[in-house]
Amino acid sequence: MKKFILLIWRNKRVYRVIIFMMTIFVVVSLFPRGSKFRYEYQKGSPWKHENLIAPYKFTIYKLSKELENERDTLRKNAKPYYTLDDSISIRELSRLKKRYEYKWETYQNLLNFNPNDKNLPRYNKFLLNKYIGIVLNTLDFIYSTGIISYDDVFKNVDNKKISIFIVRDKVAEEFDYDEVFTLKNAYQYVMKELHSAEPKYLTQKTFEMSFIEDLLSAKDFLKPNLIYDKLNSEANMNAAVSEVTETRGEVQAGERIIFKGEVVDENKFRILESYRKQYEKTYEDKEKDKTVYANYYVILFGQSVLVTVSFLVLFLFLSNFRKNILRDNLKVTFLLMLITLVILIANLVINFNIVNVYVLPFALVPMIIRTFYDSRLALFIHIIICLLLGFWVPNSFEFVFIQFIVGMVSIFALAKLYRRSQLFFTSGAVVFTYCITYLGILIIQIGNVREIEWRNFGWFIVNGLLLLTAYPLIYVFERIFGFLSDVTLLELSDSNQPLLRKMAEEVPGTFQHSMQVANLAEEAIFQIGGSTLLVRTGAMYHDVGKMAIPLYFIENQSGINAHDGLDFDKSAEIIISHVTNGVEIAKKYRLPQQVIDFIVTHHGRSRANYFYRSFINKYPDKVVDIARFTYPGPPPFSKETAVLMMADAVEAASRSLKVKTEETINKIVDDIINSQMSEGFFDDAPITFKEIAIVKSVFKKKLKNIYHARIEYPK
């Protein structure tokens, strides 16, 4: 079995057929089996189909928004239940009596200790008892009526005009909210009753009234004794909500539903939605009855055709414009896996109604693909996903339109993922685009801004937050599939990386050469189009193999040539070995394969010409084994590796120039690159003659700036 799987993996054509067929099978199995409602319509738009007459009687269902509004209204107006706690009144009245007795006793002790103190008031005990009696009777009445917490009312009762139920001794009695006391008006009521007992003819308060007012000033004798009964309140609310009917009338068979050209207003939209639900339900009932197997297989066939066509278009796109991806099993597997995973998650969310479908961050797909590949492929796959999902999401045109716009914005905003801040910017741009496009559609459908449910826009904020998971997901996909993102390239090209730091210390000449090659190659790739970060990173590591034998390379020598005394073929073998040594070092430091590609291709299958020619000159009669002087290759196979080969050869040769003028620099650049072209080093690389000419021009300009070449003035 293992050998069979390995055989399929190696046969790329067979593997592509199998993986595409498996993906089609999975996606088709996720499609809803019900018959698709044939009409597309939008609220606020004209009906563009033929006149629609009801083929059978069906019930008109309320819209989900309308139904939820009714339920919310009932929840807000549901009468809450409160339990009257008698123990609170007993406790607080007792505490007030004790405080009164303690204060009177304190006064008596003070009067006995200072009988001649004229500043001490002389209280009338009869009046004090009268006033405190009024207070206690009033409090008893208040507590028996009930004190409700003001905050508790705001928390549990939205409509202050409704009545409430008060439970006394397990018997519930209905009262208006105004019939019970709050802490504030209870205190006001006590003070009002107290002051009404004082004679009207007095111009100032009596000592006794001040005594009682001071006693009551703390207000802590008033405590809410109406306790919110959550259990009974929720039961009452649920009972009211359960009585809401989901239907509103019926449409009779043969009755007109809508004529062509009529505007789909809210009432027509409600009827059309009801007809669609009844249509799909009728099919499901027939399917359960096992009487329409023929229809079932016809629909399954139609779905299979649509999904197959979608993936066939994707295959044709890859075969025509992205052949390098189609040739790579891992890359094909990644793309198809990503498509299937997104469709599967969307299917679960829609079928089980977990959350609103707009919470799902569909823009993640183009963002991730854009990070590893390019914008065109990212947008193409995003469109394929949206079109497939359009067959079972509600309001498919609205969904596809919004997702199409959002996908393009995410691709434009995330041109290059160099910094984490770009991800936050992209997330914000996506949320803003969602809100604007959705708002425009709602205005067309509703025609009234005041009726828009603004809380629905919260789904887009959640969507934007989920987009931030792109950062860890990119890292995970890099590790699983061996991809390379711009963030990783930035990290690898940092000269403080351990391997580059070691190069700077052990082979400083090679390190400086690598830096110059990186500058040349980066500027050239920028001009002709390509990954500047990739070519720069590859250039930084392309000669890392020289660390194994640094003194055999002239840029690291200081007066003594390690090749003196060696045969030319042996020297060539040592020089050539820096490629294989570089691969070993790169693997030891776990450099990505894309960077290792620059190490193995930067000399291609060229010869170590200095030692090859020296050998021929010294041994003209010997038969030369060219393989001993030839690099193992392979030749460059991408635009970036081709440019690096040119930059490496040109930079090394420019150092050997004794006179660095405009003419000598131009000549050496032309000679080296023309020689490489004539030997077919770039035949496997997707680079044109025009682009090579641009590369030459960039190298000449950069080298003149490096060596400060000046035009020689005429005599």
How do the strands and helices of this protein lay out in sequence?
Blueprint: H1 2-10, H2 12-30, E1 52-53, E2 58-61, H3 64-77, E3 81-84, H4 86-113, H5 125-145, E4 147-148, H6 150-156, E5 163-168, E6 171-176, E7 181-182, H7 183-196, H8 207-216, E8 226-228, H9 230-242, E9 247-251, E10 256-258, H10 266-288, H11 293-321, H12 323-326, H13 329-352, H14 364-372, H15 375-389, H16 396-413, H17 420-446, H18 458-467, H19 470-481, H20 486-492, H21 498-506, H22 508-528, H23 532-541, H24 568-588, H25 593-601, H26 609-618, H27 639-655, H28 662-678, H29 689-707
Parallel strand pairs: 3-5, 4-7
Antiparallel strand pairs: 1-10, 2-9, 3-8, 5-6
Write a brief structural summary:
This protein is mostly helical and 715 residues long. It has 29 helices and ten strands.
Q: Rg to the nearest angstrom? A: 43 Å
Number of helices: 29
Principal-axes shape call: elongated
Distance between the termini: 82 Å
Strand order of the largest sheet: 6-5-3-8
The amount of beta strand, in percent, is 5-15%
Total discrete domains: 3
Helix percentage: 55-70%
Please give a structural write-up:
The chain is mainly alpha-helical and 715 residues long. It has three domains: 2-30 and 293-468, no CATH class; 81-228, no CATH class; 486-707, Hypothetical protein af1432 (Orthogonal Bundle), CATH 1.10.3210. Helix content is 62%, strand content 5%. The chain is built from 29 helices and ten strands. The strands form four sheets. A four-stranded mixed β-sheet has the order 6-5-3-8. The longest helix has 29 residues, at 293-321. Mean pLDDT is 84; it is low at 289-294.
